[in-house]
Amino acid sequence: MKLIGVDVGGTFTDLVFTDTGSGFVSIHKTPTTPDDPSRGVIDGILELCRRVEVEPSEIDSVKHGTTIATNAVLEYKGADTGMITTEGYRDVLHIGRHQRPQHYSIMQEIPWQDRPLIKRRHRKTVAERLAPPKGDVLVALDEAAVRKAARELKAAGVEAVAICFLFSYLDPAHEERARAIVLEEYPDCFVTSSAAVSPQFREFERFTTAAMNAFIGPKVRNYVDRLETVMGEKGLTADLHVMGSNGGAATAQMVSEKPVLTLLSGPAAGVLGGIWCSELSGKNNLITFDVGGTSADIGIVIDGVSTEATARDTWIGGYPVLAPMMDIHTIGAGGGSIASLDAAGAFRVGPESAGARPGPAAYGHGGDKPTVTDAHVVLGRLDPDRFLGGEMSLDTAASEKVVGALADEVGLGRHETASGILTIVNANMANAIRSRTVQKGLDPRDFALVAFGGAGPLHAADVADLLGISSVLVPAYPGITSAVGLLTTDLKYDAVRTEFQVSTGFDTGRLNADFVAMQEQLAAQLVADKVDPNSVTYRRAGDLRYVGQGYELRVAIPDGDLDAASLKAVVDAFARAHEAEYGHAFEDSPIELVNIRLTAFGEVAKIEPEAGNGGDSLAGATVRTGTCYFAEIGGPTKGYETPFLERTLLPAGETFAGPAIVLQKDTTTIVPPGWNFGADRAGNLMMGKGARP
């Protein structure tokens, strides 16, 4: 099969083509088109097809990572949205919970109050009420009130409506009927229900998730529809799948209905690409380090499995989101991060970025502010004639000018100022990793750092040094690892149900029946996606807590019919997880099973690893030598005669000493003095400090 993965970043759109029959792989990068990202996607696909001499109609599948949903939330550029909710609960979206983002600050921004996803005047209430624990109807749905609310919202010009009833996670019938009425009155409206998006308790988080789904819904739906339409016009008849935040792909139709599932689309693909590459080199505990032009994304992988975000950790743009997500932390630090002095005279780098246009001064598009990329140029670490494999030249004079202006402002030399820029951005990145490791009881020294993205390999060794990490892995195609990751995953769908059962009296009959119903739901979706039922696998999990606790821990639940013995094993697994997370467990305390979860995996064709032996010698891989400047931690900036090496010509299985600059089309890898490096048989570049990598 012929597959294409395409990931849209802030600066570049990354593409990878593979023919699973021959194992052939080709990569491509094209500038992102911020005004209409689909234009860059289509142009990039067609350019890549021409390069590999394949007709667009021959492509079988396109996997896509997109930032449309994320940007709509972060930039607060969604649809005018309305809401229909249970009487008395109009202001749940505003009140939130007693926790504030900053507990002790009296001057703080509350995102859901300062930037409401749904304005209060567009929140309508209707009579209806269910009763826990079984969802018995206390008050029937007032259908006339729903119809009236729909007409008022239509007249107000809203583009999307969220239906959010108090106990809909117990029975979605009222929400489904209300949704049908709204569509009768307003067929062109994007209508979503909280139970369809996140059928879980916690009304604030569930309502907010549904509101966010509606807020971004029209924009995402229009984007996906436009992309599919233009693909058809250009002869691309391939199936289109979009990466979800859970690390699996979803059909275009699913994404159009539930765009909230794509909020971490690109970063999730990057983690998967990092896992795939590291597995080939025998690394299982990883810190994925994805640095692009605008941001750095941090993921944690333990025993080959990425960590999942819990209900207390899933936040996007300051809003809570109850949707399956990988645990990925993002900071504003990348190749386009701008260096400046703030009002108090402090030296800062980021989070403001030069973006795709004008970009760093070195790109020659009119950038007039010093960026991280410009600092690398000034220090001689980027080859101006071989950037993007020679497809783009860097304007070294422009970098010297903008960094020189900052140097005059801070009173340092040009090289010292450039080193200072990198020191600050590296410290910011290292601190972000500490927040996901040290602050969670994990020792980063027990992990390998997997560096990718256009800028990750430029900073990997220095960041690893700050954290005491001695092993760094750079994938074969680091600049497009997210695009590669898109081609390593299966279709993946999640189902969840709230149970509220206590270990002193589990209802195994209800649990087994609910798992069967959830599996039938997911199986039907995969059949609709034309997935062979024989290639589908399922994974169960549960959210458990001690009775009275505020949040849960997720543990695996075995397959098959559940009985007292299997549930005892689940309870024991929770106790071990609680002790690992909090340092203690309570053997005699009753445990509550809050939610059960089922994940379905539909197997699809994937990219295969390329094996290669590279060149014959280091001399044969040397393109040129030049002076590059490096600064040890806390030390001066010194010039080193440094070889510039073509990565594809590095001999496999041999180790060499730094410093070195390793060139390839999609990124540059920096090996500082004191580090060793070498290419392994799987195509990965390994770096180590003080020993063989």
TrEMBL record:
Pfam families: Hydant_A_C, Hydant_A_N, Hydantoinase_A
Record GO terms (molecular function): 5-oxoprolinase (ATP-hydrolyzing) activity
UniProt domain Acetophenone carboxylase-like C-terminal: residue ranges: 511-678
Gene3D superfamilies attached to this UniProt entry: 3.30.420.40
GO biological process, one term: glutathione metabolic process
Matching InterPro entries: ACX-like_C, ATPase_NBD, Hydant_A_N, Hydantoinase_A, Oxoprolinase-like
Domain Hydantoinase/oxoprolinase N-terminal: 4-185
Membrane-crossing residue ranges in chain numbering: none
A cellular component annotation (GO) from this entry: cytosol
UniProt protein name: Hydantoinase/oxoprolinase family protein
Lineage of the species this protein comes from: Bacteria, Pseudomonadati, Pseudomonadota, Alphaproteobacteria, Rhodospirillales
